[in-house]
Amino acid sequence: MGLNIQDLAVSSPEFEHLDRLEDRHANDGDNHQPALHVSGVPDDAVELAVVCHDPDAPLPDGFTHWTLYGIPTDTTEIAPGADEQYRPGPNDFGSTGYGGPQPPAGHGPHHYYFWVYALTRAVEGTPSRREFLDTYGDAILEQNRVVGIYEN
Fold first, then answer.
1. Is the pLDDT of residue 25 over 70?
2. What is the pLDDT of residues 97-150, one digit of tens each?
3. In angstroms, what CA-CA distances link 10 with 28, 30, 150?
4. Residue 139 three-state SS
5. Gene3D superfamilies annotated for this entry (predicted)?
6. Across-strand partners of 63?
7. 9-140: CATH superfamily
């Protein structure tokens, strides 16, 4: 089956697509995870996963701010505190769970992609973003994202 990106929808009540994230979402602010709304999950999905990634970070593979696994397919809101409700994985800060934006000062605007993946099989453990994509790329039924922007 080819990748379908027509039905799964992702948004946030806390920022519009391509709008600036509030300082309270930043790692050096309150580090408050924004809520995500999800709809259009395929009927044959067995699990959802979330990855927040900054491809503008001055690193070869960007910077991963959040990995989250074990989200049931009937979930319509990934609310603040999701790290306590589901299974947080590693971020590139060297910890687990949500780590908000913290781009280098003066580096310009960075884009924070909040990806939601609908999967055909459950994720085992808590892989890094790269491990997740390498291991479960063939299990992605649909994916979509909402993007916020932040700069220091």
1. yes
2. 999 999 999 999 999 999 999 999 999 999 999 999 999 999 999 999 999 999
3. 25, 23, 19
4. helix
5. PEBP-like
6. 54
7. PEBP-like (3.90.280.10)
Tokens standing for residue 8 = 């799964």
- What are the domain boundaries of the chain? 9-140
Q: What is the pLDDT of residues 47-81, one digit of tens each?
A: 999 999 999 999 999 999 999 999 999 999 999 99
Q: Are 63 and 100 in contact (CB under 8 A)?
A: no
Euclidean distance between CA atoms 134 and 126, whole angstroms: 13
- CA–CA dist 83, 97 (Å, integer): 6
Judge contact between 19 and 109, C-beta under 8 A.
Answer: no
Question: Burial of 46 by CB count in 10 Å (0-12 exposed, 13-18 middle, 19+ buried)?
Answer: middle
Q: Does the pTM of the predicted model rise above 0.90?
A: yes
Which residues lie closer than 8 Å to 145 by C-beta, 6 or more apart? 10, 113, 114, 115, 116
